[in-house]
Amino acid sequence: MFKIKSLGVFCGSADGKNPEFIKDATKLGRTLAQNNIRLVYGAGHVGMMGAVAKGALEAGGHVTGIINTLLQDREKQLFELSELKILPSLHIRKDAMFEASDAFCVLPGGIGTLDEVFEIMTLKQLEEHYKPIIMYNAHGFWEPFRKIVNTLIAEGYVRPEHAQLVTYVDKIEDILPTIDAEIAALEKKIQADLAG
User: Fold this and answer.
1) Cα(131)–Cα(104) distance, rounded to whole angstroms?
2) Residue 21, Cα to own-chain centre: how many angstroms?
3) Of all helices (H) and strands (E), which one includes residue 2?
4) Spatial distance between the Cα atoms of 113 and 109, rounded to a whole number of angstroms
5) Minimum mean pLDDT among 4-8, 44-48, 51-55, 120-124: which range?
């Protein structure tokens, strides 16, 4: 049994060019359902977002979709979610996803996904949260992202330890165990700090 009860998933609303990513998103959704972990995501019904939600729903999982009014007006829901929250702005939507999630996983996506990742990393850097952030790096998808962060470190704009704000994994099967390991390490550190 895993430590988290909900996972926020950031990903694209497009299929992308690699069909393996859609399969991976579906597999993640199924994995969450099988482990009784609620999926929290951006409520899209197509692309990577649709795949992860369908995977969870088809396996009997609980899916919370959080969307803002502008995007809801542009998209028509094609399937019933366990819970749908329609909020007035993108900022409020992101805050709601943050509050509803015990940890985060980043699948392939576009500019919106990058926006979400950088915001959640910034909040962690500022120690406003300690939630695990997992970058699903199959086929090296997030290597350019890692290179950008390393460049910022090399140029003195980011502290070296902040490279550890996110963790990269290559397999869907590694996401939940990696989150558990990070939470266990954090709990151990807190206990040591209290004892010391």
Assistant:
1) 7
2) 15
3) none
4) 5
5) 44-48
Decide if 139 is inside a domain.
yes
Domain that holds residue 124: 6-195
Cα–Cα dist 118/126, whole Å? 12
Find out whether 48 and 12 touch, Cβ atoms under 8 Å. Answer: yes
Residue 1 lies inside a defined structural domain of this protein: no
Whichever domain contains 99, its CATH number is 3.40.50.450
Looking at residue 55, the DSSP 8-state letter turns out to be H
Query: Model's pTM, two decimal places?
Result: 0.94
Identify the bridge partners of residue 133 per DSSP, sorted by sequence position: 104
Contacts 24+ apart (CB under 8 A), 158-166: 162/121, 162/125, 165/121, 165/124, 165/125, 165/133, 166/106, 166/117, 166/121, 166/133, 166/134, 166/135
What's the number of domains the chain is made of? 1
Tell whether 77 is covered by a domain. Answer: yes
Helices and strands, counts by H and E, the chain = 7, 7
**SS3 of residue 134 by DSSP:** strand
Residues 87-143: tens digit of each pLDDT: 888 889 899 999 999 999 999 999 999 999 999 999 999 999 999 999 999 999 999
